[in-house]
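INTERNAL TRANSFER SHEET
From: sequence group
To: structure group
Subject: non-reducing end alpha-L-arabinofuranosidase

Please process the attached sequence and return the structure record in the designated field. Keep the field labels unchanged so the import script can parse them.
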Amino acid sequence: SIARFTLDPAFTVGEVNARLFGSFVEHLGRCVYTGIHEPGHPAADEAGLRTDVLELIRELGVTVIRYPGGNFVSGYRWEDSVGPVGERPRRLDLAWRSTETNRFGLSEFIAFLKKIGPHAEPMMAVNLGTRGVADAVRLLEYANHPAGTELSDRRVAHGDEEPFGIRLWCLGNEMDGPWQTGHKTAEEYGRLAAETARAMRQIDGGLELVACGSSSQAMPTFAAWEATVLTEAYDLVDHVSLHAYYEEVDGDRDSFLASAVDMESFIENVVATCDHVGARLKSKKRIQLSFDEWNVWYQRRFQAEAEENPLDWPEAPRLLEDQYSVTDAVVFGSLLIALLRHADRVTVACLAQLVNVIAPIMTEPGGPAWRQTTFYPFAQASRYGRGVVLDVRAESPTYRTAAYGEVPLLHATAVRDPQSGTVTVFAVNRDRSRPLPLRVALPGLDVSRIVEHSVLSDADPDARNTLAEPDRVVPHAGHGARLDAGTLDVALEPLSWNVIRLA
Ligand code: AHR
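Return from structure group:
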């Protein structure tokens, strides 16, 4: 049997916000230290930034970077991270039982973003775990106020004459999670988020603020949390956050391959909750979604290790250094498809994280940097997933999963560039053993040739890229796709991520 759908330029989901291709740098493990920052490395520049990693970040096409956490931010003292490096204190990082040296801080982060390129935007989080309103506005004043006050002049004295101009701010991190330092109830957090937002807006009404939603759809407080928080903060924030991580559990690969079913329902349920609160408040405003942590993460493995061997406050330990397989990359591609399919409401998303820590880019201290399997779907989606998402309503053969019941073998989306008229189809075949024939009807689309069919798949679904074999898995050209009289016919390889570009 065959999978099929129709693409029509008149039927669209919405425009892709460039911020959908964000990522995340947390002070965690080796994301910062020996990841992006390693003075003394042969490829380090004068600021200690690894230029080999900077190049890969540019190739990845990251548009926004969330910083400095994550769980780390709930103990973050921003003032420790600025000023002369030699005078910065060493602190216990409670979230990751590590020692934070503060050799890399806010100013270094902004300089790092500038080196990525003019399009790279900061998404700064404030600490609403151990801190609150006063410190959030102090950080904002230090970062964004031009000059002439104690805090803004302090920034200038530290060598940053130009204000950082940070528009996008997270009001804390995962405050619904009992693991979070300073964890709060929805009522407590909703009030704090609202008051912090109000104070920050007294400095700058144009800021874009993200309230914490749920740490996953499985949280016991899910949906009630969002409703309570937004009842307090609806008029004061622009986005609510979503976080989700997926992994294969007990060898159930079929359910793992269907992870995007959960991601899509999570998005739809948050949209429904936000709009319910909006309706109750008789508000015309629509809250947008910031999916600011998403990925495949073998979290159970990490938790078991952390319980067995609690860390003794090391500096930049090897933590959460998952090596991603071809199977992981196919699931990951499917998560990207889920985000694109909801581009009308998901206007910010951050892949957690960027380097070494559950990351598309890996490094060895003193050694090379390389691309994980997941690097490729992200880079391709960021490069070609720009424009307007077309409404894809596919018919597809299905398969049975323990976690989600009957699930379509095909997961797909398509993005059209309105300027050039080119169309890119992103598609995943979840079938582990058989190719999936796909037929796409293209009425009204001015395309006549296949520019490229790129495939990520492998005879070994567990193949990975490693230090020893960094290019073991790379995308290859697909064979046999045909575009004739407005119909695309292609066979999607078993367990594959596909990018089909039409012009
Ligand atoms: O990305 C790793 C961690 O996952 C983050 O610190 C936290 O926000 C989430 O639980």
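Handover comment: The chain has two domains: 3-9+391-502, 17-384. Residues 26, 69-71, 173-174, 215, 293, 352-353 surround alpha-L-arabinofuranose (CB under 6 Å).
Transfer complete.
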